[in-house]
Structures are given as structure tokens and as C-alpha cells.
Amino acid sequence: MTHRIIYLDHSATTPVSASVLAAMMPYFSEHFGNASGIYSQGRRAKQALEEARATVASVLHCHDDEIIFTSCGSESDNMVLRGVAWTAPQTGRRRHLIISVVEHKAVIVTARQLAQLFDFDLTILPVDGYGRVDPDALRQAIRPDTILISIMAANNEVGTLQPIAELSAIARDHGIPFHTDAVQTPGHLPIDVDAWGVDALALSGHKFYGPKGVGVAYVRRGLGLLPAQTGGGHEGKRRAGTENVAGIVGLATALQEADELRPQEVPRLQALRDRLLAALPDLIPNTRISGHPQQRLPHHASFLFADIEIQGVLMGLDMAGIAASSGSACTSAAQAPSAVLTAMGVDASAAAGHLRLSLGRSTTAADIDTVLDVLPPLVARLRLIST
Amino acid sequence: MTHRIIYLDHSATTPVSASVLAAMMPYFSEHFGNASGIYSQGRRAKQALEEARATVASVLHCHDDEIIFTSCGSESDNMVLRGVAWTAPQTGRRRHLIISVVEHKAVIVTARQLAQLFDFDLTILPVDGYGRVDPDALRQAIRPDTILISIMAANNEVGTLQPIAELSAIARDHGIPFHTDAVQTPGHLPIDVDAWGVDALALSGHKFYGPKGVGVAYVRRGLGLLPAQTGGGHEGKRRAGTENVAGIVGLATALQEADELRPQEVPRLQALRDRLLAALPDLIPNTRISGHPQQRLPHHASFLFADIEIQGVLMGLDMAGIAASSGSACTSAAQAPSAVLTAMGVDASAAAGHLRLSLGRSTTAADIDTVLDVLPPLVARLRLIST
After folding, report:
1. Cβ contact (<8 Å) for A40 and B5?
2. How many CB atoms lie within 10 A of CB A115?
3. Choice among A279, A330, A374, A380 that is catalytic
4. Are residues B32 and B50 in the same domain?
5. Do the Cβ atoms of B15 and A5 come within 8 Å?
6. Do residue A147 and residue A235 come from a single domain?
7. Which of the four pLDDT bands, split at 50, 70 and 90, describes residue A92?
């Protein structure tokens, strides 16, 4: 018996890679100076910060000054939504926001707070049974006072990809800024802010083998944005707070590494993932894939098992050394059915049986064999107990 | 000739201590699980998070559930000011904020944004020549609609301590929440939220040998606070974003270590610092101490040298292997005279000659000897050149 964990929750978080950690190490205790200081210690930190910015800009195909380092993907989403919203009172009566119903909570809850506390109008676009936004629905939702559209690139719970370029083109036709939560995409999709047509974009370091506690907001030159976290003039006066140099160096190293490994990892993980998508609905009765069968993240498999509470499955998998989740780490403590699944037309009892298996660098063919061995009898046994 | 840097900018930032870094290491690549996950990996992270919370609560003498982990001291200040302000429209017309003129920019700029964008009234209390707020001035500034008073515990630029317990008692008499930016205090002052009488308090890990990119907000039970960063239900629904477990463990370890070392470090550093305060005004003509001569942080020395631009002094010190600053790392890139010094009645030409020397664990008596050797002739030479 081995103690190795088969970790299949890479959409929730990833371990810091060895090369990323090595890149971070000098900035904790050695080159620790304040990047705003005038002395050598500070200049060294400042240089590392600007090299990291250039690296990130290069991967996203944008300008260095369009990269703002934040503390996480949620902060990046907050920064863009609040930052654009705060400009609205100064530019007349443009007060309408559009998001989709499958957004990450960092977008949904922020948009709702803007609506409730600050009198913004909010349109929440529906999705189809695969979790996709209809471009026509976006077109029809746009109003003369729409100030921002925020639609995620890929869904964390069901893996579905949105037609971002098509959606952003509609926004651009109407002169409305378009933001995308792209937290799930690095290492899995090529990111190009011009090809995607986005004006703002959020990333989170720990989703691609970087550290927790550091994120990125891409903000296109010319996009009006007031700072949502104010104080010192850091990050081009757009995000106050002493720069987390070690974390930022780690994020940049991780993003570059993820992008470089992408051509080899995507086909490898997609083949492994496709085995799960093909086999599990056959091996486990009354099972269907959630999300789009093809237009989905290449490492992401998710299923609806009928007649079961997924918590028991997750505990059984944990006891078998397999780490998985029901979809969103951010909502796993909550008891309410997933808003994403509900929006896709999944009823509450079916949603209760949702499993997400998200693969990563550590995943092997043997791991998939193990899942295919362990999961079907586990589900069968739990169904037997619960009936 | 040695390459060792004499680092005298501990008020700007500190290196991560060896024990702190060691405590953080397992949480990057080994116990990396999402603290909201249900599996063993996640539970281990969750446990580390809650142990860190208990450690911090113990040092501050408060309840665990009053500790919110953030990304930095600036975020903590933003969280409290915005979070209390956002509750205001829901509780009638209470719309007035009081701060002091010597606050950190994270407080001043945030309060100004609240005033400019969201129609809050803002009273900015003056200070005396030592940088201290007059309790009577606070008493007179309070209005029936005052919702928050925010006055820092110790000033970063001139080291002056505020009479926090006296000020907070006035707030309490009027039933108004009192927040303090205490970022400069860990390791230098005993922190006790009840003895201090504060309802909220901000700390930043990298100021006390913890990592950059992690901070703390203490928020007293019962203080109404809407989240300023929304999304998932992390940190008791008060701060969305995947928890930076390594950083949080580092901060807690560092805070405890700083508190444990305080009884030995404070007298040691104060004796070294007092040599600077006593000697430099004698060795360098037309020099005076900025801030209060006694009621100041024990590791903090700061001076006003007449007839000199401090940038040249800082560069000269850097060439001699001594890292120092003019006062605030957050404003060092700006050319405007320090608002703190201006508020203390220092004119712009005198403020241009402000030097801060902030001592720390690495500082030795020999370092102080070196400063006393190097600084007087450096200032004399630069004064000669500039006249």
C-alpha cells in the first residue's frame, strides 16, 4: 500500500512547482528590500518585479504596463468590476453591468453588491444546458448605459469554454469594455488578449503551479479604472500595497512554465481525461457528463451521478487516496445546490451528485486506472446504502 | 572590505526570518491543498490556517473569529474603512469619517476616495510639532453622524506614538468604532486590543520578519462590516479569495516570534537607537530630531538635516553599504514634501532633508559606529557641493 495521493482537484489549486519555488526563494530573506526603496536592496527587488511583469505580459501578448499584480484572482475580478464601476458616476449615467449566471462568485457577488449598495443595474445572462452563453442573448441585453460586460473564459465547475472572441466582439461593436475571469485557463488554453478581444482579464497564481496569495489583472491601456484598493502609488497607482516580490516572481515563473509545457501537457491530459469521460458513464449507471463534451478545458472531467449525495463519494475517494471535489472549492462548504448546475437546468437532486475530476502534471495513466477501478463500486455501494 | 549591507530600513520592510521561512515551506508544494476542500490535503491546510488564526489572536488578546487574513496592511486598512462605510447607507444618514493627517496613505487616500466618490464627510485631525493628535481635537470633531475614527498607533515616517487608549476612550464614549493602523508596532509595542480599546486594527506580515503579501485585520465581534472584496465565503464571509496558507502560517509564526523576542530586542534596539538620537544632532550641524524624542517607536530614529536634499545622502549611504530611507517607502518615488512633516509644521526645504534610520534584529553596535563615522562627513560634503 502506498501513501501517494492521487490528486485530481487541480481546478481548485495546484502545488507550487519545484522550479517556481526555487525562483521565489531568493526574495524572502536575501533580496527582501522594499521595491520602492532607493538603495541596492530595493532596486534588486524592483528589477525582479519588472522582469516578472514583462514575462507575464509576454505570455498574455500585452504591454508591461497593462499588468497589475494583485493578491488573487478574486481580487483581480473585484478590482476590474469595482474599478470600472467607480468611474461611472464621473461619466454620466452609465450604470448597467452584464455578467453571466455561471461566473465565479468573485464576479457574481461583486456585481450583486454593486447593484444592492450602489444602485447599479445588473443583467445576469442565462446559459444553455452545456453552460454556454448565447451571443444573441448578450446582444439583446446591451443597453445604452451598459458600462461593463464580464463573462468567464472557462467554467471551474463544469469545464465549459465560452465563445469569448465572439462575445467580446459584440461588446467591442457597442464600445463596451469586456472583462473575462480566465483563472482556469493558463496551461490549458493559449491566452492572447487581442485574439480574445478582451479589455481586462483575471488570473490566479495557484491555479497553474504558482503560489497562493498572488494574482494578475490585465487592464488594457485606456480602460478607465479607479483603484479599488487605495494607498501608496504601487502598480501604476492602480493597486496600493507593498509588492509581494517573491509571490510575483513565482507567479511569473509559473505562468511561463505552464505556457511552455502546454503543447505537451494538453494532449497528454486530454487523452487521460477522455478516458474518464468515455468510461465512467458506461461503468456507472445513470451517469451523465456535466458541461460541454468537447468545448471544455482539456484536463477537466465532471459528472452527474443520479441518486447519490456526492459528499459520501468524496469521502470514499479520500479514503482510497484520491482527492477530488464537487466542483467549486469556494462553495464546497455550502449546502445549496450549485448555481452553475441550476442555471444549466440540472435539478437540485441531480446537482447533489456532481463530481469534478481535474487532472494535472502529476496525473498518470495508472491514476486513471485506479479511478476507474475505485469509483464505480464506490458509487454502487453508496447508492445501495442510501436507498 | 565587506559586502555585508547595514540595513537600517526595517520600518519599510524586513527579511523573512529563518524560522518563519521554515514554517512556511511545507505549505507550498506538500500541504498545498485548498483549505476549503473536503479531502485530507485540504483539511491539513485548513488546520494550519486555524492554528495560525489562534496564534495571531493570542498575541493580540482577542478571539480567533476576530482575525481576518488579508494580503497586506493596506488591504486591512481598506477593508475596515470601506467595510464600515458600506454599512452606512443601510443604517440611516451616518456618513462622517475622522482620521488624522499623519495616517498612512492606505487610510488617507481611502478616506479621500470615500469622500470624493461616495459623498462621505471627512475630518482630518491636525497634529502637533511631534506628530501627535490632540485628544481634545478629536472630541470636538465628533458629530452625531460620525461612523468611524481611524488613527494610527505609531507613525512610519517619524516614529511618534499616538495616545491610542486615550483617543479610543473618547470614541467609545460616543459609541463610534475606532480603527488603528498598527502596522509599525509588532515586536516594538505590546499589542492588546482591549487595553488599546480598539474595534479594528491593521497589521502587515513583512514589517515583522514575515513574508510580503499577507496581512491581518482584527475586527471586534459586533462591528458591522460589509466585505470590500467579495466572492467565496472565505474568512467568515468577510474576505473572498483562496487562503494564502503558506503566507498566513508565515505571518503567524513571525508575529509570535516578534512578540517573544520583544522583551530582549526592545531595550537592545532602544539603546542603539538612542546613540543615534543623542550623537547625530551634535555631529551634524543644523540637525534636529523629527517626531517625539521619547514617545516614539524604540527602533526608530529620524532627523531633519538643514540645507540638503536627502536623495544624495541616501545614495552616499548606499555606496557605503548602508540602506536607509527618507521616511515612507510608499512615497519615496514622489517628489512632493511629506504630508506628515508638513502637518508637523516642517517647511518644504527642511522636509527635503529628512532621514529615517530604523533598526532591527541584524543591527549591531558596530553598525551604529559605522553610521556615526560615515554620515557626518557625507552630509558635510554634500552641503559643500550644493552651496
Report:
1. yes
2. 18
3. A330
4. yes
5. no
6. yes
7. low
**Between B10 and A335, whose confidence is greater?**
B10
Q: Is B234 on the interface with A (CB under 8 A)?
A: yes
Q: Quick: pLDDT tens for B197-220.
A: 999 999 999 999 999 999 999 999
Asked whether residue A100 is assigned to any structural domain, the reply reads yes
The answer to whether the Cβ–Cβ distance between B240 and A17 falls below 8 Å is: no
Q: Is A330 marked active-site?
A: yes
Q: Average of pLDDT values for A238-256?
A: 97
Q: Which pLDDT value is given to residue A116? A: 92
Q: Of A210, A228, A257, which one is at a domain's C-terminal end? A: A257
* Chain B residues within 8 A of A78 when measuring between CB atoms: 229-231, 240
Question: Residue B381's domain is classified under what CATH number?
Answer: 3.90.1150.10
Question: Is residue B1 situated within a structural domain?
Answer: no
Whole-prediction pTM: 0.96
Residue A120 corresponds to which cell in the numbers above?
447599479
Rounded to the nearest 5°, which phi and psi values hold at B68?
Answer: -120, 125
User: Is any Cβ of chain B less than 8 angstroms from the Cβ of A334?
Assistant: yes
| pLDDT for res A4 | 84
Determine which of A58-62, A90-94, A150-154, A345-349 has the lowest per-residue pLDDT on average. Answer: A90-94
Q: Does residue A1 sit within a domain? A: no
Q: Shortest CA distance to B122 belongs to which of B144, B103, B95, B140?
A: B95
Mutate to test the interface with B, among A229, A248, A357 (most CBs of B within 10 A): A229
Summarised one tens digit per residue, pLDDT across range B96-126 is: 999 999 999 999 999 999 999 888 999 999 9
Among B245, B239, B237, CA closest to A334: B237
Bridging pattern class, strands B146-150 and B200-204:
unpaired
H or E segment and range at residue B50:
helix B40-60
The pLDDT of residue A38: 76
Examine the fold and report which residue of A235, A257, A279 is the final residue of a domain before the chain moves on.
A257
Query: A57 and A190 in contact (C-beta within 8 Å)?
Result: no
Is A310:A354 a contact under the CB 8 Å cutoff? yes
